[in-house]
Write a structure and sequence with these properties.
Blueprint (H helix, E strand, L loop, with lengths): L2 H14 L5 H12 L2 E4 L2 E4 L9 E4 L8 H24 L1
Antiparallel strand pairs: 1-2, 2-3
């Protein structure tokens, strides 16, 4: 499965799953955005763009990701997909 297919699958899976595990979200972010740094309890990822959507994860209750952070990751994955498609179309 190529990177584009993995990206689409991650977006689709998280769009329908209301309760995403923190460890799963962290793994997805590592796969597409690389290593993170930790500041206190926050896991902060660099993105290939400046500004929003930023990726700043913090574990919620019951080892679940916080819903608003899942939405931020979804927005970042969609933006990444769009950037990669634009780059592919330019070639």
């Amino acid at each position: 499965m190529g990177r584009n297919e993995l990206l689409e699958k991650a977006i689709e899976d998280m769009s329908f799953d209301k309760q995403v595990r923190f460890s799963q979200l962290l793994k997805i972010c590592e796969q597409f955005f690389g290593n993170y740094r930790v500041s206190g309890s926050h896991h902060i990822f660099k993105t290939p763009w400046q500004g929003d959507p930023r990726i700043n994860l913090q574990k919620g209750k019951d080892k679940k990701a916080k819903p608003y952070q899942v939405q931020q990751v979804l927005n970042a994955l969609r933006k990444l997909r769009d950037l990669e498609e634009d780059k592919k179309n330019e070639q």
